[in-house]
Amino acid sequence: MNILLLGSGGREHAFAWKIVQSSQCSKLYVAPGNAGTAEIAQNIPLSVTDFEGIHKFILDQNIEMVVVGPEEPLVKGLVDFLQSKPTTKDLPIVGPTQLGATLEGSKDFSKRFMQRNNVPTAAYETFTADQIDAGLAYLEKQKLPIVLKADGLAAGKGVLICLSLEEAKASLKEMLLEAKFGDASSKVVVEEFLNGIELSVFVATDGKSYKILPEAKDYKRIGEGDTGLNTGGMGAVSPVIFANEEFLKKVEDKIVKPTIAGLEKENINYKGFLFIGLMNDGGEPSVIEYNVRMGDPETEAVLPRIESDFVGLLKGIASGTLSEYELKISPDYATTVVMVSGGYPESYQKGFPISLPSSAEGSVIFHAGTVVNSAGEIVNQGGRVIAVTGFGKELEEALTNAFKTVEKISWEKAYYRKDIGQDILKLNELNPKN
Ligand code: AMP
Ligand code: GLY
């Protein structure tokens, strides 16, 4: 198969790494890709939102499957666009249509979907600017902390956890009346605060059947001990000890099954990955959010644990034959440590040459924001730059392998969190496997 993969992050390098290992892939193109994908596939200088350009490329290169990494082209309707063209209407695509992508593109839409389909989630109300008075009155009656969410995509910044009523009221006004998050906050979801430990669960679906991929824990804050600003994700661990068999069974029965059944019932054509962010509150799962793609950096820890043929999984999703696919998962640990540009998630300098080791024993190096400059050097180009995944029979070994490689990678002002996995390591010590 000739495959076109869209995106340029660590997630896409991990996808590319798995795809090229499959005997079913004859040629892989990545648009636009990064310096890491360039080493194993062919990068194409096409933007993920250049729908006409993507369509032309598919025809010119005889592309037989498209795999969409990030949410933006999905929310903007790439799949519907390709399906509306006679030449690509039946092309297998991994990624939902625009309506399906609204599960991520609108928090209000996804909350209403969960309510209609009895998926457990925090209590909420949605307000627009002309309902500001009702919104402020609603806040008065809620418990603290209270969560305010911009309805639309806000690059991961649209969620505020307010500790006081004053803060909540001021933030609601800023979001609705002063467009704090632009158009994304023209509607605001006001939501009950959920206590507990967060978990990322990944589901592959062809719209009818589904496969649950390995779960992962993400480390969202920039600073050690989960302090400082939110980022796209500073690390990931898979598997996660508190996600035991009993808890995962509840996730499947109370969340995954009604979600997939809801998609089918509501005629939402969903062929792709669904990322369910959830809270484990005393053993009960509750959905925080849906994302219509894989997580980053969770993908870099989750995909290496898939032992069955990855292109077979993608084909099953895109062609509606997922029920015939046998998913095989490794019981071993995979832990990902993300290295970022100094200053991220605020402003940072780009263009520093990156020194990379020639070998990475017990680990694999995924590129994210890297590019090859005119002198042929690999330099940092984004906030998150490199994601190293270490492997091991035990969590400690996987972490040691990841950090050993991280320590061999350097560029000016590089930063990473040294405490990735430490919280889970403590939980493991308290609850030994045997
Ligand atoms: P989101 O953009 O929906 O992923 O939210 C960003 C982060 O805010 C989540 O990963 C949680 O850590 C936190 N969060 C969102 N909603 C809630 C909630 N209802 N209760 C507690 N924390 C939340
Ligand atoms: N790591 C969280 C995300 O991909 O949204």
Descriptive terms for the model:
single chain, alpha+beta, Rossmann fold, Dna Ligase, domain 1, five-stranded parallel beta sheet, five-stranded antiparallel beta sheet, 14 helices, globular, binds adenosine monophosphate, binds glycine
Describe the structure.
The protein is of the alpha+beta class. It has three domains: about 1-85, Rossmann fold (3-Layer(aba) Sandwich); about 125-190, Dna Ligase, domain 1 (2-Layer Sandwich), CATH 3.30.1490; about 195-430, ATP-grasp fold, B domain (D-amino Acid Aminotransferase, Chain A, domain 1, 2-Layer Sandwich). It has 14 helices and 22 strands. The chain has a five-stranded parallel beta sheet with strand order 3-2-1-4-5. Strands 12-15-18-22-19 form a five-stranded antiparallel beta sheet. Strands 6-9-7-8 form a four-stranded antiparallel beta sheet, sandwiched between helices. Strand 2, helix 2 (about 35-40) and strand 3 (about 40-45) form a beta-alpha-beta unit. The N and C termini lie far apart (about 45 Å). The mean pLDDT is about 95. The structure holds adenosine monophosphate (AMP) and glycine. The site of adenosine monophosphate has 13 residues, from strand 8 and strand 17.
